[in-house]
Amino acid sequence: MEQILVNGAILSANYALIALGITLIFGIMNVLNFAHGQMFMIGGLIVYTVCVVFKLPYAVGLLAAAVVVGLIGMLLERTLFQRVMRISSREENTMLLAVGTALLLENIALFIFGEKQRGIPPMVSGVYRLGSAFLPANRLLVFAISLALIAAVLLFVNFTRQGRAMRALAQDRTATMLMGADVNRISMLGFGLGAALAGIAGGLLISVSGVNAGIGTAISTKAFIMIMIGGAGVIGGALLGAVALGFAEAIGYALFPGSVTYLLIFTALILFLLIRPQGIMGKPWG
Amino acid sequence: MSFLKVEGLTKRFGGLVAVNGVSFDVEQGEILSVIGPNGAGKSTLFKLIGSFMTPSAGRVLLDGTPISGLSPHQVARMGVVRTFQETTVFKEMTALQNVIVAHQLGHAAGPVGAFFASPAARADDRRSRENAEEILAYLGLGHVRHELARNLPHGYLRTLGIAIAMAASPRILLLDEPFAGMNPEETDRAVDMVEGIRRRGITVLLVEHDMRAVMQISDRIVVISFGSKIAEGTPAEIRDNPTVIEAYLGQDDETIGH
Amino acid sequence: MATSTEAAGTIGATSPGSRKALIAILPLAILLYAVVPLILRGQPYWLNVMTNAAILSFGSLGVWVTFAIGRVNIAQGAFALLGGYTTAILSTVFGLSFWLCLPLSGVVAALVGTLIGWPLLRLRGIYFAMVTLSLTEAMRLLFLNTVTLHDGGGVLNIPRPAGIDTPLDFYLFAATLLLVGYLAVWRLAGSRIGWVFRSMRQNEELAMSIGINVARYRVFAFAFCSAMGGMAGACFASLQQNIYPATYTVTDSINFMLYCFLGGLDFVLGPIVGTFGLIIAFELLRSIQEYQALLYGALMILVMLFLPNGLLSLPSILGRFWRSSR
User: In whole angstroms, what is the distance from residue A226 CA to residue B26 CA?
Assistant: First the structure.
């Protein structure tokens, strides 16, 4: 029982980073980042490259993951999304562009890293006991870092000028423009931040369970599940969704064999959406 | 029996009461205007009558049949057709196509016939097209009928919205602020147009701010303030009604308009 | 926009239908029936590629119909899988002929589409997209956990259709199916129903206000789409002679959607052009094996950037360019 709680908590914290990232991007730009899973994956592989290939400390790896993936996000926003959003007639165009970027990033990663599963040795060794539950020190570290980052993001969005600009943009694009804010720059930073969060989440996960170049779609799917549960574009919803999914997974994997867990999660999700299509905290239909 | 009967219509949004127990009748063939200061609840009232919202209390009857709570398309099929406040048209179609597609009622051929282009379906389409051309010409849009709707100027879009509504064979037309943003000359033309609609046998219920137009065209007027009906009567009665004048105090002189 | 110019004055069926239909279908028919077999007669590998492209085009045509009502549908893989398994089980376990399984797969897919679609089609935009994506995954997991004929949930030894023996035979069958599908969707788009769809896509509220039963038409479009997906899956199962839970994944659902988009959403021919274009491009890049996937992805992005309305918008863009430079 305690093991389920521990697992659930750890998963929730990691997933929260993913959910926060995609929520930021959706909130600011109204674009569903289909490439979120691929950015997660690239973050993980960057940590692998830095730590295993270049043999640098883990912290450097995480920083590199955040910076590189963040830059990728900003680049995509600046060169691709801004242009397409300006010239497209149908609103589906940006969604499909996002799908295209996912494909591109995945193919680039496959090209560079191949299909092999990569992992890194744990940074700290040892196992703690929490009642009847086992808590590897490594996972505890990941948990702690995740929580710290979540707190940092919340502080950033609520108390810094940049963060508040992003929130303003998410709430009312026209008003924010009229107030003289550089909407393009805020969008770019927002996308970069969201991407960086995905990258860090990947960098954290690779130390726990490893990453391969093909997991992008699976992670994106999880991100979507979380924002479907919690509501798109709402930070509180993202966190709620992460907790819901994290614990659902922990409970499910403890009780059921392999793939049945997600079958149940999807079934429950679809039934939930029939009653409340916008998620727990989402605006009607979105 | 009145044609359209609004009975104790109420709509609450959380703690806010937008429409409060409003009742009035609309006789067949008349032009009835609903007026009131800004934020009085007129738009909400309209949406309730057109069944785009369900009332918290009260109901609407058409020819004795309750229509509240039916889905909007059903109410439209029964003859209650509304226009929209914003310029709501099918932007990627031409004006003519907009009005043709609005002919969804009274087809002889069903969907299967339409798919296989049966003779009945082809006759339907011919009829729809002829009717659409006539409506557009009548409303003065004949010369732009092959223009894409999104290229049309604002004033034409409003008229196009009315053309679309008319194509749906309404028995009663709910016009949402048909004179908004018009100069006096345009307003006079629009007043003539609404009169023309009535002459075609369509009852008109309209919501409006422009007092001058309302006074010109209405047979009767209902005044709403803060969600409640405060007066009902002929234009002459309403103009001199002290309750109405008080409700409008503090509004621009322009809106009182006499 | 092409739909308005191409249909200017042709709402419904104001001219003799059969002649127009023939004109619409002739170029495609010539390509599929004459050109391709002529060029690829003795090359089973390429005939297989074309067969696959034809089957996938059929599925993409379905997705085009949901685009026509303004929904981004990432569930076609689920219905292809459903149709494939229906055919697989009916033909292996119950010995039914493929020619019976094919329509049955379509019917099953349409029924499930109606059931699921009715409540879910209230959603729009990204919500609908995400839910349909979940559907694809859920379907895969369903079959993985419920089909116990073999380990891993697959079905093997699915028979070929009676009378289809060579790759050329199967190709001609697939091409015929595609032509029938194209004709059906082309007719749907040009009929009164197609215009109802257009009106719903452009403004659902306005459509309701003029008496259109939006909910019913939405479900019809989705069921139509699902049926085409189911039949595509049935054909593929028979072509491969096996089916697994992983035969159609989220990636495949996304591909169905992408093919439509890249061909051009304004044209019924779009999904076919998009599918064949991308599949042929992918095959041609096979010689540069290492860079294949990479170039494929880059190509897609380039098309999105410079031809946001799809490949078929190229003629009108070139036309405008030509006229403005004179």
Answer: 51
Report the sign of the C-alpha dihedral through residues A202, A206, A209, A215, in that order. Answer: positive
**A278 CB within 8 Å of a chain C CB:** yes
| Angstroms from A35 CA to nearest CA on chain C | 13
The residue segments making up the domain with residue B119 are 87-169
| Among candidate residues A7, A19, A6, the one with its CA nearest the CA of residue A201 | A19
pLDDT by residue (tens digit) across B145-185?
999 998 998 888 888 999 999 999 999 999 988 888 778 88
Same domain, B174 and B244: yes
Q: How many CB pairs under 8 A join A and C?
A: 124
B68 to chain C nearest CA, in Å? 14
Position B140 confidence tier, pLDDT thresholds 50, 70, 90: confident
| Choice between C60 and A271, residue whose per-residue pLDDT is larger | C60
Supply B239's token pair. Answer: 């103009």
B94 plus B140 within the same structural domain: yes
Q: Cβ of A266 under 8 Å from any chain C Cβ?
A: yes
Tell me if A223 sits within 8 A of A16, measured CB to CB: no
Q: To 10 degrees, what angle do helices A216-230 and C250-263 make? A: 90
pTM attached to this predicted model:
0.90
Note whether C69 and C218 are within 8 A (CB). Answer: yes
Instruction: Report, as an integer, the average pLDDT of C289-301.
Output: 78
Asked if B88 and C11 come within 8 Å (Cβ–Cβ), the reply is no
pLDDT reading at B258 higher than 60: no
The stretch A255-272 carries a mean pLDDT of 89
Using only C-alpha atoms, what is the Rg of chain B?
19
Predicted pLDDT at A274: 82
Distance CA A286, CA A277 (A): 9
Could C202 and B164 be called an inter-chain contact, meaning their C-beta atoms sit closer than 8 Å?
no
User: Which of A32, A96, A286 comes nearest C258 by C-beta?
Assistant: A96
CB A245 within 8 A of CB A15: yes
Sketch out chain C's domains with CATH numbers: 2-324 (1.10.3470)
Distance of CA A235 to the CA centre of its chain: 12
- The DSSP symbol for A126 reads -
Question: Which residue from A minimizes the CA distance to C262?
Answer: A96
CATH number of the domain enclosing B114: 3.40.50.300
- Using an 8 Å CB-CB cutoff, list chain C residues near A101: 301
Interface pTM (ipTM) of the complex? 0.88
A92 near C CB under 8 A: yes
